[in-house]
């Protein structure tokens, strides 16, 4: 008896639903847009009166169709991990500037999520646009996510869950995006229509910290410093400092400064802005460039000592070289004339402009930025430029140590030990060689080249370097001079001892 009643009940429910759907389809097809809207609204009001569930919708576009909503994109990314596992109907999407395809839930699929004991359901809907006066539908449908939860979780969803979705979604988007390498050097300032301040290419440098030749402890310290920085948004806000950090990488050519920048960008998933200071016309342009830099980025100024003339001595050196037999005054006049004629081609960025760029008020916009300077001559830099707070961490990249060599050997030759290692260790203790030279010696020149041959090449390079250093030393001693390296340092020191001012008159070369 009960079974018959149940069957009857289901039949009644089924037929009511079917009739309702039929009526609704007729309404959707034949009723004018305004009537349909009105009916939909009334029905929602009626249902929400009895319904204990709350709905939140997140539209794909904000205002115009040009602005895709950040919130929608974050929800889409957040749900993609859930969709991949649980949805039965999926859609394959690849966003602009994304390097990865994403599987998102298809329309009208329902996905459930759990958060702090609450069950939350998500459905992707479509919405037809308002028809135009002539009745045509020129715009395609738009989509929106509908989030449903019981009203008892209202506060928790508003305060924690939505924030959690946005944060996770943004993280996924950052991970999936195609990172870029930007430069300001390739811009034609006089082109019309105006070119953007930065031009970009996909950033595809493969350097990783694992492959950087360096003492393990020092490397670990740098990695931890970088990771701590990237996770310290709240800390920087609490102490009232802009969320940025400066790194000064210094050392001889070929010791891995540029390689380390690429490894930093890969570790943190950041974009790289390679700032060519000599292509910046003045401080205002520098500020404009700064404004356009987004967060999660590394701003790099390579060879900073060559870009900025603080004392004028390098300019003097150049003048002396060019004028050998001419008198200095005449040459200076010539230089001024040239400057006047090609005035606009000379950068007028000043040291104070650069200091402002690094830690002035404008430098705080965007957040989560790392600024890296590289130089071969740290002693030539103005102390104001590299003081802690501007360049927070000074990292010396020096000649290859035996530990560094072992990293390269493992990388290039896939060996961690070899009878020739002892000899290499001994030679490395006696002479200096850059990691770039070690890497070159270990590079296989043909697929058949074996480990022993590569290591022998390195031994040969080390012996040559040792001989060269000895010959140089002997030559200097015979001339009654101190060793060349110390000599050049002394010379540089003497030159930089001239008072260095931070006035706006110091200009770029
Ligand atoms: N520490 C290192 N670890 C691994 N590879 C290195 C290291 N240093 C140099 N190399 C190798 O040598 C090449 C040159 O290195 P890199 O361009 O990073 O040197 P640099 O210090 O930036 O030199 P410069 O001062 O001339 O700009 C790189 O392609 C890299 O393969
Ligand atoms: Mg370099």
From TrEMBL:
Keyword Coiled coil among UniProt keywords: no
One family name in Pfam for this protein: AAA_lid_At3g28540
Protein's recorded name: AAA+ ATPase domain-containing protein
The organism of origin for this protein: Rhododendron simsii (Sims's rhododendron)
Cofactor: Mg(2+)
PANTHER family: BCS1 AAA-TYPE ATPASE
Domain AAA+ ATPase per the UniProt entry, residue ranges: 243-401
Entry's Gene Ontology BP terms: response to stress
Catalytic activity from the UniProt record: ATP + H2O = ADP + phosphate + H(+)
Matching CDD domains: RecA-like_BCS1
A GO term for molecular function: ATP hydrolysis activity
UniProt keyword annotation of rRNA-binding present: no
């Amino acid at each position: 008896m009960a079974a018959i009643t149940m069957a009857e009940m289901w039949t009644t429910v089924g037929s009511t639903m079917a009739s309702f759907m039929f009526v609704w389809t007729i309404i959707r097809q034949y009723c004018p847009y305004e009537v349909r809207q009105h009916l939909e609204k009334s029905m929602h009001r009626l249902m929400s009166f009895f319904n204990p569930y709350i709905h939140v919708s997140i539209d794909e576009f904000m205002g115009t169709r040009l602005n895709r909503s950040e919130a929608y994109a974050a929800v889409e990314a957040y749900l993609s991990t859930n969709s991949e596992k649980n949805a039965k109907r999926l859609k394959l999407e690849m966003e602009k500037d994304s390097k990865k395809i994403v599987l998102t839930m298809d329309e009208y699929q329902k996905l459930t999520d759990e958060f702090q004991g609450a069950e939350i359901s998500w459905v992707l809907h479509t919405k037809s646009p308002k028809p135009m006066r002539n009745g045509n539908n020129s715009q395609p449908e738009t989509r929106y996510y509908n989030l449903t939860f019981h009203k008892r979780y209202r506060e928790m969803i508003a305060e924690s869950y939505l924030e959690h979705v946005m944060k996770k979604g943004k993280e996924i988007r950052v991970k999936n995006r195609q990172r870029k390498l930007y430069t300001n050097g390739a811009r034609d300032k006089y082109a019309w229509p105006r070119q953007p301040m930065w031009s970009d290419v996909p950033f595809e440098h493969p350097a990783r910290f694992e492959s950087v030749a360096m003492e393990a402890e020092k490397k670990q310290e740098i990695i931890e410093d970088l990771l701590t920085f990237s996770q310290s948004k709240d800390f920087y806000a609490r102490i009232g400092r802009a969320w940025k950090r400066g790194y000064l990488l210094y050392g001889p050519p070929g010791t891995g400064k540029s390689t380390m920048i690429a490894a930093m960008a890969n570790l943190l998933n950041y974009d790289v802005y390679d700032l060519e200071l000599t292509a910046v016309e003045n401080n205002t342009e520098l500020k404009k460039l700064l404004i356009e830099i987004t967060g999660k980025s590394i701003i790099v100024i390579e060879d900073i000592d060559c870009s900025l003339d603080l004392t004028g001595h390098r300019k003097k050196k150049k003048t002396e070289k060019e004028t050998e037999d001419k008198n200095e005054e005449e040459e200076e006049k010539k230089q001024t004339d040239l400057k006047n004629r090609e005035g606009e081609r000379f950068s007028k960025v000043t040291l104070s402009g650069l200091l402002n760029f690094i830690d002035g008020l404008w430098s705080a916009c965007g957040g989560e930025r790392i600024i890296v300077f590289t130089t071969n001559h740290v002693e030539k830099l103005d102390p104001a430029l590299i003081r802690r707070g501007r360049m927070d961490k000074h990292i010396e990249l020096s000649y290859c140590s035996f530990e560094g060599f072992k990293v390269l050997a493992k990388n290039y030759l896939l060996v961690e030990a070899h009878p020739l290692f002892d000899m290499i260790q001994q030679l490395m203790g006696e002479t200096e060689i850059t990691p770039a030279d070690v890497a070159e010696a270990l590079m296989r020149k043909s697929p058949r080249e074996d480990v022993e041959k590569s290591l022998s090449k390195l031994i040969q390079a080390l012996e040559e370097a040792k001989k060269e250093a000895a010959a140089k030393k002997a030559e200097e001693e015979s001339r009654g001079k101190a060793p060349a390296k110390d000599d050049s340092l002394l010379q540089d020191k003497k030159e930089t001892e001239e008072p260095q001012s931070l006035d706006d008159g110091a200009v770029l070369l």
